[in-house]
Design goal:
The structure is a single chain. The chain is mainly alpha-helical and 232 residues long. The longest helix has 26 residues. It folds into 2 domains: 179 residues, no CATH class; 50 residues, no CATH class. It is globular and about 60 Å long.
């Protein structure tokens, strides 16, 4: 069962592997360039495991200790995970012993894979979710440590390398759009984000956009479910 789950999870997480290979390397290089030892990069990737926050933490770790400021910064950067958690609540609630790790390891990319996953017959969903989550974290940890170890040898300018994350999301969303006949949720996300971007600006639009998207999805939930029932 686990071998089948690992094979299926690996196939599903290949896009994440591609993105994390570059982003993890870049993060490790930044940590090394800031004077942090490689073992600190390893520990942060193992126990913090929040890509955007880890990038922000490169400078935070070198600044005077300010736990309140770090807490507020972390909540601002990772508040979107609250919405991911609501979306996966039903699935993860039934995960039993896997639930604590699934909750801890829920990242943007893992959410994108698990929410749209085609789980093979004979593989319990919690087991599949566990292996997609574990493989994604393995990719990130391995790449970040490798970047930290190689940091002193890399001399080229890494500016803009984090665009790989944007490319990764575009590929995932494109695949979901092509695989699904129901495009209203995606359109709600795009339109809600654009409206909030115009109203609140690039620095403050994420939380309002998430709230608008959730409300839109709640409003269209029953019509979508009725349509799915009719087509079943």
């Amino acid at each position: 069962m686990h071998k089948k789950a690992i094979r299926a999870a690996f196939r599903s997480t290949i896009p994440v592997l591609t993105g994390y290979a570059f982003l993890g390397l870049a993060y490790g290089v930044l940590m090394s360039g800031a004077g942090h030892p490689f073992w600190l990069t390893l520990l942060v990737s193992l126990f913090v495991y929040a890509g955007s926050m880890q990038y922000a933490a490169v400078s935070v770790l070198a600044a005077p200790f300010n736990p309140v400021g770090v807490l507020v910064l972390t909540l601002m950067i990772n508040a979107r995970h609250l919405f991911y958690g609501v979306s996966m609540l039903r699935e993860y609630r039934a995960a039993g012993k896997y639930a604590p790790y699934l909750i801890f390891s829920l990242t943007d990319e893992t959410f994108s894979v698990n929410i749209s996953a085609c789980v093979p017959d004979g593989v319990p969903r919690p087991v599949f979710y566990f292996w997609t989550s574990a493989l994604d974290q393995l990719y990130w940890v391995a790449a970040s440590v490798l970047g930290a170890l190689a940091g002193n040898l890399i001399t080229f300018d890494t500016t803009g390398i984090d665009f790989v994350m944007t490319a990764l999301f575009v590929s995932i969303v494109t695949g979901q759009w092509l695989d699904s006949k129901e495009h209203r949720p995606a359109l709600a996300g795009i339109c809600g984000s654009l409206v909030c971007l115009a109203v609140f600006g690039a620095d403050d639009f994420i939380l309002p956009a998430m709230a608008v998207i959730v409300l839109a999805l709640l409003a269209m939930r029953r019509p979508i479910e009725r349509k799915e029932a009719e087509n079943a």
